[in-house]
Amino acid sequence: MMIRPRRNRKSAVIRDMVQETQLQAANLIFPLFIIEGNNQKTEVKSMPGIYRYSIDNLLREVESCLNLGLKAFDLFPNIEDSLKDKYATISYQKDNLYLRAIEAVKKNFPEACVVTDVAMDPYSSDGHDGIVENGEILNDETLEILGKMALAHAESGADIIAPSDMMDGRIGYIRQVLDQNGFTNVSLMSYTAKYASAFYGPFRDALNSAPKSGDKKSYQMNPANVREALIEAQLDAEEGADFLMVKPGLPYLDVVKMLHDNFDLPIAVYNVSGEYAMLKAAAQNGWLDAERSTMETLLSFRRAGATAILTYHAKEVLANGWLTR
Ligand code: PBG
């Protein structure tokens, strides 16, 4: 044999020398759940190790992450049912829980990068990402609400706004609202290819945001489709997105790779709640090694071409020193 690929695997030094992709703390974005109250920290049952924090405890959590070198956070609010309505009105009202949280994090830790989620579902009495009328999700009417929400986030100090709603035209609409109000520097991370997935279940538990009726298939993408993601990506790029995101992660690595190969924008991937729950459950049962299965998963996103990885594993990876072994 002239060619023996095993020679490049024969020692740790050579294996490291030929390693094609690396995972760094800078690649990670940590999603955090927020609730009303003081000194609250309640675990999400289907996501062991993940909590909903009141703002005071959120600040403690952000500080401990920053000390570990984890610098980017994506915030999600758990809103009391009594505050929800058909138009998600509370979502852009001054001093609501979410806006107070953004302000508190940026005031105390200006160096933290705060990503905010734009979508109606946590605030909607229908649990949908758009206005529901006779069982249909209205697109253009929803844009107005998303614009108000995004503007409120920018005014509160958001660094990156991430629309997760999948309405048509929302990137261009939000970009215009931000620019007209002087927020030309606020970035947009578009949930470009967001699939109608079963893997969001634990997240909806965390926020109590599941749809009250129907499903999200008329706006989130069909898991059977891949070329359709190119249409979404083309539109987002033209409308001014700064990042293209694929969500969920592991079941859609082909989509990550395809967007990476076809667009020059940075690619983000959301390693969602259900993916986290699967690995945690297996690790807790002793069926999988937590460190190795987690690192292999995160590395697969880098290999497929993502530079930004939204993952509930972000803190444990750093706290356990898994990046440096
Ligand atoms: C909703 C939203 C969802 C997630 C992020 N933003 C759920 C959904 O679309 O129902 C899921 C994230 C996760 O599962 O970790 N706009």
From TrEMBL:
The keyword Lyase applies. Its EC number is 4.2.1.24. Pfam families: ALAD. Pathway: Porphyrin-containing compound metabolism; protoporphyrin-IX biosynthesis; coproporphyrinogen-III from 5-aminolevulinate: step 1/4. SUPFAM superfamilies: Aldolase. InterPro entries: ALAD (IPR001731), ALAD_AS (IPR030656), Aldolase_TIM (IPR013785). Keywords: Heme biosynthesis, Lyase, Porphyrin biosynthesis. It catalyses: 2 5-aminolevulinate = porphobilinogen + 2 H2O + H(+). Belongs to the ALAD family. This is Delta-aminolevulinic acid dehydratase. It comes from Sphingobacterium corticis. The gene is hemB.
